[in-house]
Amino acid sequence: MPRIFLIEDDKAIAKNLMLLLKSEGFTVTHASAQGEALAALGGNKFDLALIDISLPDGNGFIVCSEIKETQDIPVIFLTASGDEASVVTGLNMGADDYITKPFRPRELVARIGTALRKSGRSNSDFIIQGLHVDTATGVVKKNGIEIFLSALEYRLLLVFINNPKNIITRGMLLDELWDAAGEFVNDNTLTVYIKRLRMKIENNPADPQIILTVRGTGYRLGGGYAAQ
């Protein structure tokens, strides 16, 4: 699971970004200031950094320089619209990409996936029973044909992918879906989402081989999976 280091001082933007990235299967560590970011670099390893250029106690350029010196991971700058000078400065310092605010969530996820693949740090492909999930881009294919999942269906699938060897209780799934939806998801709703997901990803939804039921406990991922 790719580890993202998010440096963003705007609380609302940071909260939304963390929800988005976690829903896409990333692990996220957040810092809201230059000093906090530099301190976090001392004891953590990341696969990619998202850095806001303007920070309350400095700027993202200093953080970028430290990251390139100590971890040499891809850096994507988050910039204000039309701030061309900052973009040029960031790219000259070794940043891999930039995206202007406000940005489209899917575009950001796609750019993160591209940067991870170019750096060789992407471990985003998961394959099971003809189902191919690229968690860096959010693309899901069944037998080579792209299928489209709702946000909650995709989040549900990610829970199984991220816990391939574990039995997942209904309570755990309810917590995950509630967090992703931002609203209460009850037991009946969970049953509906499991059914809908199986209809889309299983060869025979009546005899599921990907999402298996563990009677009296919950569910688990079927065998024959591979992470690449």
UniProtKB/TrEMBL annotation:
Gene3D superfamilies for this protein: 3.40.50.2300, 6.10.250.690, Winged helix-like DNA-binding domain superfamily/Winged helix DNA-binding domain (1.10.10.10)
Keywords, in A-Z order: DNA-binding, Phosphoprotein, Transcription, Transcription regulation
Does rRNA-binding appear among the keywords? no
> Which residues mediate DNA binding here?
123-223
User: 4-aspartylphosphate (modified residue): where?
Assistant: D52
Give start and end of each Response regulatory domain. 3-116
Matching entries from PROSITE patterns are given as: OMPR_PHOB, RESPONSE_REGULATORY
All copies of the OmpR/PhoB-type domain together span: 123-223
Biological function: May play the central regulatory role in sporulation. It may be an element of the effector pathway responsible for the activation of sporulation genes in response to nutritional stress. Spo0A may act in concert with spo0H (a sigma factor) to control the expression of some genes that are critical to the sporulation process.
- Protein name listed in UniProt: Stage 0 sporulation protein A homolog
